[in-house]
Write a structure and sequence with these properties.
CATH architecture: Alpha-Beta Complex
Distance between the termini: 8 Å
Strand order of the largest sheet: 4-1-6-5-9
Cofactor: Mg(2+)
CATH superfamily: Nucleoside Triphosphate Pyrophosphohydrolase
Protein name: NUDIX domain-containing protein
Strand content: 35-45%
InterPro entries: NUDIX_hydrolase-like_dom_sf, NUDIX_hydrolase_CS, NUDIX_hydrolase_dom
Number of helices: 4
Order of helices and strands: EEEEHEEHEHEHE
Keywords: Hydrolase, Magnesium
Helix content: 10-25%
Structural class: alpha/beta
């Protein structure tokens, strides 16, 4: 069965602390279930991808001093956003910031964006994470980034179909 999906443009930032830990947020999607994602989200009409990633990161963390770097990866995935089946096209940028908790009262933003919690993950902890990661290859991508640095051009990770809670992948 094919589900008609709304297209959405989005951008995220891979926020790394000085020791290489990554900041992630936990979401619970009706189709996918619990999964950890990078800060970021949907772009406003006409919004530049990096500007949108930075805006979303401020809204979701309170951090206004994330130092952006190059675009690392692009990918597409499906999920249900506020009851609407969605195919999201994402650009993921590199960013750096000190290791700290989000700043300010972000309860409205968390509620609006469906963020359950957030935390910093070391690469070793992330490799043992029991929940899905978005993008799914995040552990290998981080390892490659730590060993080789950012790619000269963003790597296209392609389309990743979700594995819905009912166990039947969607097209």
């Amino acid at each position: 069965m094919t589900i008609q999906r709304t297209t959405r443009r989005a951008a995220r930032i891979l926020v790394l602390d000085p020791d290489g830990a990554v900041f992630l947020q936990l979401h619970d999607d009706p189709e996918v279930g619990l999964h950890w994602v990078l800060p970021g989200g949907g772009l406003n009409p006409g919004e530049d991808e990096l500007a949108g990633a930075l805006r979303e990161t401020v809204e979701e963390t309170g951090w206004t001093d994330v130092v952006p770097g190059p675009a690392l990866w692009t990918w597409e995935h499906d999920y249900t956003r506020k009851g609407v089946p969605t195919r999201q096209h994402e650009v993921i940028f590199l960013g750096s910031a000190p290791r700290r908790d989000p700043i300010g009262d972000l309860s409205d933003s968390f509620r609006h964006d469906g963020i359950l919690t957030c935390r910093w993950w070391t690469p070793a902890e992330l490799a043992d994470c029991p929940d899905p990661l978005w993008p799914p290859s995040l552990v290998a991508l981080l390892d490659d980034l730590h060993r080789h640095g950012p790619p000269a051009q963003p790597l296209n990770l392609g389309y990743t179909p979700n594995t819905p809670r009912d166990g039947h992948a969607d097209q």
